[in-house]
Design brief:
alpha/beta, six-stranded mixed sheet, binds NADP nicotinamide-adenine-dinucleotide phosphate
C-alpha cells in the first residue's frame, strides 16, 4: 500500500520533554499504515512552560489530536475546553482530541487512556481485579492511574508502598478527596498499626465495592510481608528501567510467592530483574509493553472515531514497539 505523505495527510503525535526515545511514533505509524489511513504520528519536543501555547498551536494547525507524556500530563490541563472524569480526578491528561465547534473555533478535549490501558491489559492477561488484594509499589504519576483504575475495577484492598511515604499518603488522599467533597463520605482513619507512617483509608463510595487502601514506607520487610497475602504486585517505580537494569525493588534471596501475579510497568527492558525473579519463583509475570500499546490503541480509537478493533491494534502496536526496541538495542550495540 502507498503510504506517501501528500496534501491530505492528517497529523497526530506526542508532546513531551525529552521525547526522542518515545516508542509511540513506531507503534502508531505501524497501526496507521496497517489501517490504510493517510495519517502520520510525529514526536514533538515541547519545553516546559510552552505547553499551552504548543497545544493551542497544534489545534489551530488542524492536528486530529496528540498524546501527552512526561512531564506535561498535568501542564496541558489549562489548555482544555473539556476534560474526562478520570483525567480530572488524576490531574493528568495523556490524550488530546482536537475538533472544531459550530463556529469553527478549535475545541480541545483531554482524556486519560493510561487507566484503561492498564486495567484492560490486566484483563487481557487473564487477571480480573475485582475482589482481589493488590500491592502497588510507587506513588508517582503512573501509580496514580494504576491505583485509580484498580479502585474503579473493584479490588478488595490496595497496599501502596513508596520510598517517600508522604507521597503515597498524598496519592491516596487525592484519589479519595474528591469523593469526600462530592458526597461528604470516605473518611481517613489512622490505622492501629504500630507504624506511625501507615494509615488506612476507606475511599470513594462511588467505587464499587468499597476498597481499603493501606500505605507503608517501601522497605524489604513491608514489601515481602504485604506480598505474602496479595494476589497482584504492581511495580510502578522506575527501578529496573534501562540503563540501571540491575535495579530491583524485590529483596535479593527472598522468594516471590508463587501465587502472585507480578506486573511491571517498566517496558525497557521487557523482562526486568523483578519479572525475572518472579518468573524463576514460579509466579505469573506481565511486562509494561501491553499497557503502553493498549493506551496507544485507545487514543487512536478516540482520534479516528472508527470502531477500531482495539485488541488487534494493541497487538500490532506491541509488535511494532518490540521491533523498534530491538533495533534501538542493535543501534546501541553497533554504535
Ligand atoms: P515518577 O512520577 O517519577 O515516579 C517515580 C516513582 O519511582 C516514585 O514512586 C519514586 O519514589 C520511585 N522511585 C524512583 N527511584 C526509586 C528508588 N531508587 N527506590 C525506590 N523507589 C524509587 O515516574 P512515573 O511517571 O510514575 O513512571 C514510573 C515508571 O512507570 C517509569 O518506568 C515509566 O516508564 C513507567 N510507565 C509505564 C507506562 C506503560 O504504559 N507501561 C505508563 C506510564 C509509566 P519517590 O516518590 O520516593 O521518589
Amino acid at each position: 500500500m502507498d503510504f506517501a505523505i501528500n496534501g491530505r495527510t492528517q497529523l497526530i503525535g506526542v508532546i513531551g520533554w525529552p521525547i526522542e526515545h518515545s516508542l509511540s511514533p513506531a507503534m502508531h505509524n505501524a497501526a496507521l499504515e496497517a489501517l490504510g489511513l493517510n495519517w502520520r504520528y510525529v514526536a514533538m519536543p515541547v519545553r516546559p512552560g510552552e505547553v499551552v501555547t504548543a497545544v493551542r498551536g497544534l489545534a489551530a494547525l488542524g492536528f486530529r489530536g496528540c498524546n501527552v507524556t512526561v512531564p506535561h500530563k498535568p501542564a496541558v490541563i489549562p489548555a482544555l475546553d473539556v476534560i474526562s472524569p478520570e483525567a480530572e480526578m488524576l490531574g493528568a491528561v495523556n490524550t488530546l482530541v482536537f475538533t472544531r465547534d459550530g463556529a469553527g473555533a478549535p475545541h480541545i478535549a483531554g482524556h486519560n487512556t493510561d487507566v484503561a490501558g492498564f486495567i484492560g491489559d490486566l484483563r487481557a492477561n487473564g487477571f480480573e481485579p475485582e475482589g482481589r488484594r493488590v500491592v502497588v509499589i510507587g506513588a508517582g504519576g503512573a501509580a496514580r492511574g494504576v491505583v485509580y483504575g484498580l479502585l474503579g475495577a473493584g479490588v478488595a484492598q490496595i497496599t501502596v508502598l513508596n520510598r517517600t511515604v508522604e507521597r503515597a499518603r498524598q496519592l491516596v488522599e487525592d484519589l479519595t478527596q474528591k469523593d469526600r467533597k462530592q458526597e461528604a463520605r470516605g473518611k481517613i482513619e489512622e490505622d492501629d498499626n504500630e507504624d506511625p507512617a501507615s494509615c488506612v483509608l476507606h475511599p470513594a463510595s462511588c467505587i464499587v465495592p468499597p476498597a481499603s487502601c493501606i500505605l507503608y514506607p517501601l522497605t524489604d520487610e513491608t514489601l515481602v510481608e504485604s506480598a505474602r497475602t496479595a494476589d497482584l504486585l504492581v511495580n510502578t517505580t522506575t527501578v529496573g528501567m534501562w540503563p540501571k537494569v540491575e535495579g530491583c525493588v524485590w529483596p535479593e534471596g527472598a522468594p516471590v510467592p508463587e501465587i502472585l501475579t507480578v506486573y511491571d510497568l517498566v517496558y525497557n527492558p521487557l523482562e526486568t530483574r523483578l519479572l525475572r525473579l518472579a518468573r524463576q519463583s514460579g509466579a505469573r509475570t506481565i511486562d509494561g509493553l501491553g499497557m503502553l500499546a493498549r493506551q496507544g490503541a485507545l487514543a487512536l480509537d478516540l482520534w479516528t472515531e472508527q470502531a477500531l478493533d482495539v485488541e488487534a491494534v494493541t497487538a500490532l502496536m506491541r509488535r511494532a514497539a518490540i521491533s523498534r526496541q530491538l533495533s534501538a538495542v542493535g543501534q546501541k550495540a553497533d554504535g
